[in-house]
């Protein structure tokens, strides 16, 4: 059976053996066909081996892919590697999603529809566009994330409610237009920088309300350094917004 798709879901992994098979099965169980690209940063727990075992199964062979990297090189570089891989192929829609079920695979078709049916260029799975939709997060982390997004809006004038969200759909032309090699940030700052750059170029952005559920299995990769980069990097983004010449939109 052929599994042709216009959509690829990029899932970065580091030590996600408890989750990776289940998240792949959940995506492939959706009515709409999505392909998956796993980018594994040298997980010592065998995450990549699980993915490769699944790829060897006939039903997954033409829709599950993996890129293995030699160590923890950062979330931003993982996604940019995946974006370039997707652009070398014919995907019209490229998604970011976590492996740990904090992003619900059942929301993928809603993000897709915002771009494919409603005409938006970027769809963001937003925790904050309709209140605070976060489950099982420590209150300190909820407040840090929520006020970080408020801070970004205040400093940059950028109207997106959930600026650090990592659950997104991009139309192909967005990733073709953004100069990916000029994206500087590696952690949560990467998520802000990508959205802000798309906004400054003139792409249409839609926030789709989602419920974010803290991981049930495995270990969180969040750190103060990641958050600090996002916090202080926003000042540079504001400066860029005043001084940088952004590229013109490239059609797909």
What does the model show?
The chain is an alpha/beta fold and 252 residues long. It contains eight helices and nine strands. α5 (139-156) runs parallel beside α8 (224-243). The longest helix has 20 residues, at 224-243.
Please describe the topology of this protein:
Blueprint: E1 7-13, H1 20-28, E2 35-40, H2 47-55, E3 64-68, H3 75-87, E4 93-96, H4 108-116, E5 122-126, E6 134-135, H5 139-156, E7 168-171, H6 172-177, H7 188-201, E8 205-209, E9 212-213, H8 224-243
Parallel strand pairs: 1-2, 1-4, 2-3, 5-8, 6-9
Antiparallel strand pairs: 4-7, 5-7
Helix pairs in contact: 5-8, 7-8
How much beta, percentage-wise? 15-25%
Radius of gyration: 17 Å
Briefly note the structural class of the backbone.
alpha/beta
Report the span from N to C terminus: 28 Å
Q: Main sheet: which strands, in order across?
A: 3-2-1-4-7-5-8
Q: Categorize the overall geometry.
A: globular
Seen as an oligomer or otherwise, the chain set is single chain
Which features does this protein show?
alpha/beta; 9 strands; 8 helices; two-stranded parallel sheet; 252 residues; seven-stranded mixed β-sheet; 16% strand
Q: What's the short version?
A:
With about 250 residues, the protein is α/β, with parallel strands linked by helices. About 40% of the residues lie in helices and about 15% in strands.
């Amino acid at each position: 059976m052929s599994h042709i798709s216009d959509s690829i879901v990029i899932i970065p992994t580091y030590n996600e053996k408890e989750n990776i098979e289940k998240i792949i099965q959940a995506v492939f169980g959706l009515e709409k066909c999505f392909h998956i690209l796993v980018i594994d940063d040298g997980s010592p727990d065998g995450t990549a081996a699980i993915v490769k075992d699944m790829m060897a199964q006939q039903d997954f062979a033409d829709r599950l892919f993996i890129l293995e990297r030699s160590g923890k090189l950062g979330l931003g570089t993982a996604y940019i590697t995946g974006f370039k891989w997707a652009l070398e192929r014919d995907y019209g829609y490229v998604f970011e999603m976590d492996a740990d079920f904090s992003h619900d695979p059942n929301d993928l078709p809603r993000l897709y529809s915002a771009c494919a049916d409603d005409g938006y260029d970027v769809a963001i799975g937003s925790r904050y566009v309709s209140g605070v939709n976060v489950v099982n997060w420590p209150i300190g982390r909820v407040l840090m994330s929520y006020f970080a997004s408020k801070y970004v809006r205040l400093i940059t004038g950028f109207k997106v409610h959930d600026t650090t969200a990592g659950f997104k759909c991009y139309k192909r032309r967005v990733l073709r237009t953004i100069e990916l090699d000029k994206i500087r940030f590696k952690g949560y700052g990467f998520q802000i920088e990508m959205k802000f750059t798309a906004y400054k170029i003139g792409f249409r952005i839609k926030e789709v309300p989602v419920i974010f559920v803290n991981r049930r299995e495995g270990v969180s990769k969040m750190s103060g350094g990641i958050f600090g980069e996002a916090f202080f990097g926003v000042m540079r983004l504001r400066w860029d917004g005043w001084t940088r010449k952004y590229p013109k939109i490239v059609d797909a």
